[in-house]
Write a structure and sequence with these properties.
globular
């Protein structure tokens, strides 16, 4: 098959969420949705086991909506959701995509990239007219990513949805596994008020997950 045809096919499969693109290694990896096409790919034990348990424990501790996201080209795709216990809550659906360069789950995922890769993703986002420079300049993005690298988390104040706060943090994953980030989302005032409890809950689960991630191939 010609290289251009193969590249177009891979890109289409990634857009349909059958593959995810790992920008660091520039490799395409199968997603859980691909399991619908054949029995040789099954839901990853890591995500269906330790990750699911971690999400449920965080949800019990903080009572807010828990999002699990992964990189899909210039987007974060929400691959799992645990609904909040609160009557007033942030609502979204599995499969929703938000921009890497302008979201509370996207910035933690970008924090592991090189500055050159972040600039490339930002330029591509602009080129596709998914965002305007006036809404999110590269200088603001770079400053935000540097803060995430320093603090270990991102606090988004209405970046995607007005009035909604999101605390985002990268989740430990095994080698060659797709990268994941967790987000705790809810009304901004409530998220800011409970920041210490939210951060403690995510950090405790990340500490639990690290041994699993380091032993799974």
């Amino acid at each position: 098959m010609p290289t251009s045809s193969a590249a177009a096919l891979l890109k289409t499969m990634a857009q349909l969420n059958y593959l995810s693109f790992e920008s660091t290694s520039r490799c395409y990896l199968p997603t859980l949705r691909l399991s619908q096409l054949g029995s040789w790919v099954t839901p990853a034990n890591y995500e269906s086991g330790p990750i699911q348990e971690a999400v449920r424990r965080i949800g019990r501790k903080v009572g807010e909506t828990i999002l699990l996201g992964t990189v899909a080209d210039i987007y974060v795709e929400i691959v799992d959701i645990l609904r909040a216990k609160q009557p007033l809550q942030y609502y979204t659906t599995v499969g929703t995509r938000v921009l890497l360069v302008h979201s509370g789950v996207g910035w933690p995922l970008l924090s592991g990239e090189t500055d050159e890769e972040i600039a490339r993703i930002y330029r591509r986002t602009l080129r596709l007219k998914k965002i305007e420079r006036g809404i999110s300049s590269f200088e603001r993005l770079k400053a935000g990513i540097d803060k995430v690298r320093h603090d270990g988390y991102c606090l988004s104040r209405g970046m995607v949805t007005k009035g909604v706060g999101v605390v985002g943090m990268v989740v430990p994953t095994p080698p060659n596994h797709r990268r994941l980030a967790i987000g705790v989302a809810g009304p901004m005032e409530r998220i800011e008020k409970n920041m210490a409890r939210i951060l403690a809950a995510i950090r405790a689960e990340n500490a639990r997950l690290t041994p699993f991630a380091s032993t799974i191939d």
